Structure formats: C-alpha cells, structure tokens
Amino acid sequence: MSRQSTREGLEPVLDPADERLTSRAVLGGTIGNVLEFYDFGTYSFFAIQIGQAFFPATDSFASLMLSLATFGAGFVTRPIGAIVLGSYSDRAGRRPAMTASFAMMSAAVLLLAITPSYETIGLAAPSLVVFARLLQGFALGGEVGPTTAYLMEAAPADARGLAVSFQPASQQIAATAGALVGEILSLSMTSEALNAYGWRIALLLGAATLPFGLWLRSVLPETLHRPETHVLVTQPGGQAHSNRRIMSLGFVILTSCTITTYVTGYMTTYALNTLHVSAPLAFGTTLISNAVGIVAALLGGLLADRAGRRRIMIWPQITALLMTYPVFLWIAESRSAFALLGGLGALTLIGTIPYSAFYVSMAEGLPRNIRGGAFATIYPFAIAIFGGTAQPIVTWLIHLTGSALVPAWYMLFASAAGLFAMLMMPETAPLNFTPNHKRNVVTPRRLP
C-alpha cells in the first residue's frame, strides 16, 4: 500500500503489485448499469404511446402530461432507494447492493411491459404502471452510488477517471440502445402498430437480458472490504466540513447534469410534438445525440486522468454554455435533419465531457466508508427534484408560451449553475500541477 499527494492532502492508493479487480468485474458493473438505464429510459422515449395506452384523455396534450407525470413518479422513490441501498453498500458491500437493485428493476420492467391497457382493465392499468414506476425509481436510486464507488475502487489511481467515466457512458449507451430500438420500430412498423404494442416490444427486449444481468452482478468480486486507509483531507475545518462542502457542490452539479440530460432525452418527444418532424428523424436525433454522448463521456474521463479534474469540468462547461442558445435557435428556425442531428450532436459532445470529470472528483473527495451512501443520496435528490420535473415543465412552458426555444433557456439556467459549482470544486486528481499546468506524476512512497 502506498499514498500519493494531491492538491488537498494525502490519499492512500493501491500499488500496481497489489491485487486488482479484473476487467470483467468492471464490465459487469457497467453492463448492469446499462441494462437498468435502458429500461428506465425507454419509458421516456415512448411517453406519447404509453400515455395513449394507459392515460386516455380528451386531448393529446392531457394524455402526454399524465404520461410524463407518471414518468416523474419514478423519481419520488429514488431518494428512498438511494438511502436504503446506498447505506447498505457501505455496510455489506457494493455487490449485494447492486444485485438487489437489479432484481427489483427486473420485476418492475416486466410488470410495465405486460400490464394491459386502460381499455382492457380500466383504472387498474394506470395504478399498476404507477407502482412499476415507483419500484423502478427505488431500484435505480440505489444503483448509481454503489456502482460509481465500485468502479473507482476497482481502478488504479492513474486510471480512475476513465474507469468512473463508464458510469455516465453506460447511461448514454443505454439511451442509445433505447433510441436505436425506437428508430428500428418506427421504420418497420405502422403508426397504429407502434402506438398499440411497439413500445411493449422495446421494453421486452430489455427484459430479455435481465437473467444475464442478474448473473453478472451476482458473481462480481467485492471491493468494499479490501484493505484501504481512509482518505486524508487537509482543508480547513476538517474532514466533516470538507465532506459537506463536496456534497453541497456535487448536488448543484448533479442538478445541472440531470436537467441537461433529461432535456436532451426529451428531444424525441420535442421533435415529434413541437417541431412536428417525422418519427424516424425524431428517434434518429436522440440516437445520434446519445451515441456522441458515449464518446464524450469516455473522453472526459480520459482527459481527467491526463489534465486533472477541475480543468476538464470548467472549460467544456463554458463552451457548452455559449453554444446552447445558438444551437436551439438553429434547430427551431430550420427544423432540418442537419440542424437536429449536427447541432444537438455537437452540443452533446461538448456538454457531456465535464460530468465524467465530476463523477470521479466526487468519488475521490469522499471517504470510502460513506462514499456509496453519500453519492447515492445526493444523486437521486437532484434527479427527483429537477430530473423528474424537467420534461413536464418544458412541455408545459412550450404549451404556455408557444416558443420552441424553451429547452434552450432551461438548459442555460442549469449550465450556469453547474459552472458556478465546478469553479468551487477542489482538485482531487492524484497528480501535482506546476504553475504552467504541466502534469507531474507524484512518486509513491511507502507508508511507515
């Protein structure tokens, strides 16, 4: 065991000669995350069709709002799942917490996929859908914190950024898979068939992978009980003060991230309902954006390992802030495939990079004995308050104002708040930086 200097203090890290987790273990955690977010996100992509199946109303706007409100219901139980499963991961281990989360998600997805429509069983249909969403939210609330802690603890110190970047990248992979399924179904099915049962096919495709995911999670090696000294931080006010500061800033940054993510994920519904483009183009917009997001998330983690956490958070965030309004203005005025695919793709590329650096910075800044629970707790509160309301608020504001630029203004507000918090985050990378910003790797030395 050795320790390396950081700008904040000293943090113990594993030597290359110590026992390491295999790449299969990291892949197992990531794949489980992909499967869970695919099932959770598919609801968002098919919000219109699900609204028609379970929430019939006198007009399409009311039906869509009921569907989106039910989507938001899944965010209500996220904090509960985060507290329960996150603290469980800090006591019993990352693997049992991740396995339990995945098992509950499996049950919720199957229930949502097979529930008959309102026309068949009446009020029981929306009741079952709401219950499934609440269970999904509980399960997903306990997913992010333990998985992020697991990925960081499984990685060597000089590759933590890349390892942890698989957390946001896996969410983008899941979103891309969902958009790809939507694109294929929209091209191969009639509108009537897509509305009637196409969305069920998308959910069942995700459900087909659930047994493999459960097995993969159950055989992961554990990281919690490996020998490791607590993180030492030398900020004024002590460790407790530092933890509270990092968690408060993390909440703001996660709020910014979730608003950006869910507004971007809303682009399929936005393109169909507001811009009135074809279904293939609408699904293609989300598909391209999410595919670019995968590359950007991994790039952000890789850059964070090379140049430090703060710089890779701050500068791309400033660029994304300056790009947002012009991109949405171009999309709203032209409503062309080039604007939707190219403009939104470029914005996603730049805007995703900062959050990979943040994920690893947050995990590094917290001691291991609270890492899973603390990260898990602040994440769903940010998601529940701002993610669960993002799509209904944007839909309502577009309906109220008639402006197609509402998503841009909402994202600008979120990005500015996130940038302010990023500027206050400490540097946690196990590197030293000279005044001219060159990277100097610190030579490990033995503990006494």
Automatic annotation (TrEMBL):
Its main location: membrane. This is MFS transporter. The chain crosses the membrane at residues 64-85, 197-216, 246-267, 279-300, 312-332, 338-360, 372-398, 404-423. GO terms for molecular function: symporter activity. It holds the Pfam family MFS_1. PROSITE patterns: MFS, SUGAR_TRANSPORT_2. PANTHER family: ALPHA-KETOGLUTARATE PERMEASE, CITRATE-PROTON SYMPORTER. It comes from Bradyrhizobium cajani. It comes from the Bacteria. One of its GO terms (cellular component) is plasma membrane. InterPro entries: H+-coupled_symporters, MFS, MFS_dom, MFS_trans_sf, Sugar_transporter_CS. Keywords: Cell membrane, Membrane, Symport, Transmembrane, Transmembrane helix, Transport. Belongs to the major facilitator superfamily. Metabolite:H+ Symporter (MHS) family (TC 2.A.1.6) family. It is found in: Cell membrane. Residues 25-429 form the Major facilitator superfamily (MFS) profile domain. It is a multi-pass membrane protein. The keyword Membrane applies.
